Amino acid sequence: MQIGFIGLGVMGQAMALNLLRGGHRLALWARRPEVLQPLLEAGAVACATPAAVGRRSEVVFTMLTAGADVERVALGLDGLVEGLSAASLLVDMSTIAPEMARSLALRLGEQGIDMLDAPVSGGGQAAAAASLAIMVGGKAAVLERARPLLELLGKTIVHVGDNGAGQVAKACNQMIMVGAIQAAAEALHFAAAAGADPAKVRQALAGGSAGSRALEIMGGRMVDRDFAAGVEARLHHKDYGILMQEAHRLGVPLPVAAQVWQQLNALMAMGWGRSDTASLLRVLEASQRAAG
Amino acid sequence: MKIGFIGLGIMGRPMALNLLQAGHELTVWARRAESMQPLLDAGASGADSPAGVAGVVDLLISVVADAPDVEQVMLGEQGVASADRAGLVAVDMSTIRPAAAREIGARLLEQGVDFLDAPVSGGEVGAIAGSLSIMVGGSVAAFETARPAFECMGKNIVHVGDAGAGQVAKAANQIVTGAGVLTVAEALNFAARSGVDPAKVREALLGGFAYSKILENHGQRMLDRNFKPGFKSWMHQKDMNIVMQSAHELGMCLPVAAATAQMYNAMLGSGLGEEDSIAILKLLERLSGAED
């Protein structure tokens, strides 16, 4: 199939490569052309604008940072909508506000273009291994058209509901995951302060009821004091801004998420936005250092 | 002075009446015509749009709900900016995001209109008594132009700094009052659930370091179970969102404000949005096992 892909960061690179390996033809556009190189070498074609990607593609994937980026690429000047034909499909795999996903689907729908919101969980490793968890919002029939492609990217593909429902699931995912990273950081920080070896504590906990992916992976990074990203903490911070705004809009109290958000704010203030979210441990350590 | 007044709700109406009673010549506009009637009856003139008001005054004041409303009034169709009134001073006394105030001010300045952000504290009672606290951001020259009008509406009038500084002060004010209402409600609920007369506890605390205007005024209304607004919960929820989104942008940790904002979210979600913010006591009672 003719596929378009826009948004070639760490995640996007790996995902685009998996689509190529699945035997599809790939058209690309990137704001910074230098990120295209590895994919061009693997056989993809570069385009001058998102509109040009649209003209060549039956299905376009986007994997961008913010809702405004997706909006610009889809509906802005030289945007996808200027090139896509009716009955084509946009699959947005970015993490953006549910409201924005619904609004984009509505506006694209007016041009006869279908849309799925299909954010993912699993990080760079899972993107490379094609084992992402994919949470899909949109019409069931549209998902069936996209499913063979999504199966090249991920293992768990769940149709959560209508447009926006995928982003709601992703917000829930971030709430639980970053909350669990914070819990792991607090436990390991407490263990060290109480004179126990955090590595041993983590090992002991892994087999029991407190075991979690966050304790295993981010807890491991904390024990090794390896704070190089995985997923950059600034992206989790961005996601918390989205989900807390949504909670405000709905009038839903999220007391724990609100506190995790504040720890992420502190992390950003300390300049660790581009390191791993395991740096939440360093925020706790900093709040215990003698002030001065 | 010829003064224009836009937005005649709970706060705006008594503020405008105080300007009239001080002898200023007033032209008013409100989205709903019936809101204008009390002012017209008291001797004000009516206009058919914000631009219509701007055309005939030297100083224009707005008191509306949120940033999109201010934008509409100042920069929208038939807005203040469209009146071509270079030299006009426009003052917005609503509570909006500091960043939004700065942006609106900059865009008005392009039309030669000098802008002040001048949010208030003191509630309906202070608006009626002409005893509001007014926190002003913007140029000194514009502040001096508006000062005679401010003195008809408020007592404690402070020029805090440049554009946006008034809104920053107001956000800080809402951190203190938002958390203050919550802590007073917690203390009185704690007393009651411990089998002690909360009225006596309030009386005892008023003489010590826990004294605050909120303990005195809001505390009394809690004891009287007088939940009539005053200051509606949904407005405080909106203000806490301004605080938290600003903290997110700045990368700073506000743990207490974050917890407070979640309680206000819960008030909205449980149908208490139209009641006074002291109805947070009802929410605490429910969470402490009281029957509704």
Nutshell version of this structure?
With 292 residues, chain A is α/β, with parallel strands linked by helices. Chain A folds into 2 domains: 2-161, 3-Layer(aba) Sandwich (Rossmann fold); 168-288, N-(1-d-carboxylethyl)-l-norvaline Dehydrogenase, domain 2 (Orthogonal Bundle), CATH 1.10.1040.
Question: Would you write up a description of this structure?
Answer:
The complex is a heterodimer of chains A (292) and B (292). Chain A is of the alpha/beta class and 292 residues long. Chain A folds into two domains: 160 residues, NAD(P)-binding Rossmann-like Domain (Rossmann fold, 3-Layer(aba) Sandwich); 121 residues, N-(1-d-carboxylethyl)-l-norvaline Dehydrogenase, domain 2 (Orthogonal Bundle). Chain A is built from 13 helices and nine strands. In chain A, helix 7 links the parallel strand 8 and strand 9. In chain A, helix 8 packs across helix 11, helix 8 crosses helix 13 and helix 11 runs antiparallel to helix 12. Chain B folds into two domains: 161 residues, Rossmann fold (3-Layer(aba) Sandwich); 120 residues, N-(1-d-carboxylethyl)-l-norvaline Dehydrogenase, domain 2 (Orthogonal Bundle). Helix content of chain B is 53%, strand content 14%. Chain B has a six-stranded parallel sheet, with helices on both faces. Chain B has a three-stranded mixed sheet with strand order 7-8-9. The relative contact order of chain B is 0.09. Chains A and B meet through helix 11 and helix 12 of A and helix 11 and helix 12 of B.
